[in-house]
Amino acid sequence: MARTRPMTAMVAFLLILSTVIPACQAHVAPRSTPANSSADNQKYYDQVVRAMHPMTSTYCKASVPTVAEYKLPVIPGASSLQLEKVLLFARHGDRSPIHPLIDDLANNVVWNCDANESMTLPDSKLVATKVSDVLSESWAPRSYMGTCALGDLTAKGRAMHVDFGQKLREIYVDRLGFLSRKLTLSELTWRATDVSRTIASAQSVLDGLYPHGTYHHGERITIRTRPYEVDPLHSSGLDKQCPKLKQLKTLAKKHPMWEQILNATTAARQQVIALAPGVEAADTSKGSPEQIENLMCRRCWGKAQPCVNGMGCMSEATVDDAWLIKSLDYWYKDNYFPNHVQPETVSLAMGPLFREILGIVDGGSKAKLHLFLAHDSTLSGILGALRAAPEQHQWPAYRSNLIFEVWSGVEKGVRGKYVRILNDGRSLVTDPDLVSDKPWCQFGGEHGETCTLDLFRVYLRAHSVDKWDEACKV
């Protein structure tokens, strides 16, 4: 198969990008009109080139904080620091593909999930394991060979979250003494989307955080879920309940920036869509083909990339192109469009989740650690709403994680509170070229790695609404 080199498809996109991205100017509100300064355009162009250079090696397993690298936050003028609350948002672990390809149906690839044990909480006497039985009947939807259902968490996916839990224990139990050494149910709240791979990942984090011998027999923690259509962790599904949000998402697909991204990536997208069974040529309004995730699943397991009769086999370089398309898709929809064009998008798409976060940091829950296990779209939505810098806002990897830490410290005799956000173990850096006419937390560089809790609250309120259902009307 002929391949499009990463910079072949992207150079065209980035040349166009330099004509439409707002200038990197300070002290002005974000705007959707093109900047006048070619120097500013070139500066932003260079930033995007560096940020969007394929980094697919990190996709298969995101980094997490480790006790060796973890450091207390630096808060100038503050002393006697105490950690008061932690909110952890994470993507599920490694999974099987969701969208089968043509050669999957030809039985060229096998996906097994038999080793995915402990799908129930420890010591369950009634349920031992969960194994998906894939139908082989002729009338069943065609899939791939093996015991995995579509999108099942694999043994590797479970193991990476057990490891995550162990790393959290080393930091928040062993080093900081923030959590009790023995499981204390009142210290934890566990949330997940109502999907088996996120629920199993949430359980796996718990298995690592509190292994055998650190809890009493019969103790159980409740993993809470909500229906897809009303779950703020499923921001991609909220438009079903919010006509205004659906309208804004449609508008995003008509913006010149989106059209240029599609035009610049047409060749690579068509190469991917050709691998899908029974699918016509890609509609230019659809963006990144769904089948890209299958290519990355194969890469994470070292499986051969797909081949199509008469077209040859997909090269690894073309998979890099596909990853880049997906990253640009998330960056545009969740970051560029809301922050440069339609700020109302943030309040409607992420506002319900922001209100949930606000309730926790305002003291609505006495628990210390709040876990939210979700999806790549969830992490991308949060990163975009926080205005993460391009180098930190790409396609969220397996177990990609955002950790919100609420600290208190004494400054000039008064104890104040501060927020630090870790993105895959690193301090979050917001886009230095974005400014706002509303108060918001900036991280990185001269702004440091923390924001006052008071300002963080103001930011959450300013980017959410009191009556979401009313705001959703058109």
From TrEMBL:
Keywords: Hydrolase, Signal. InterPro entries: Acid_Pase_AS, His_Pase_clade-2, His_PPase_superfam, Histidine_acid_phosphatase. Residues 1-26 form the signal peptide. GO terms for molecular function: phosphatase activity. Pfam families: His_Phos_2 (PF00328). The keyword Hydrolase applies. It comes from the Eukaryota. Belongs to the histidine acid phosphatase family. This is Histidine acid phosphatase.
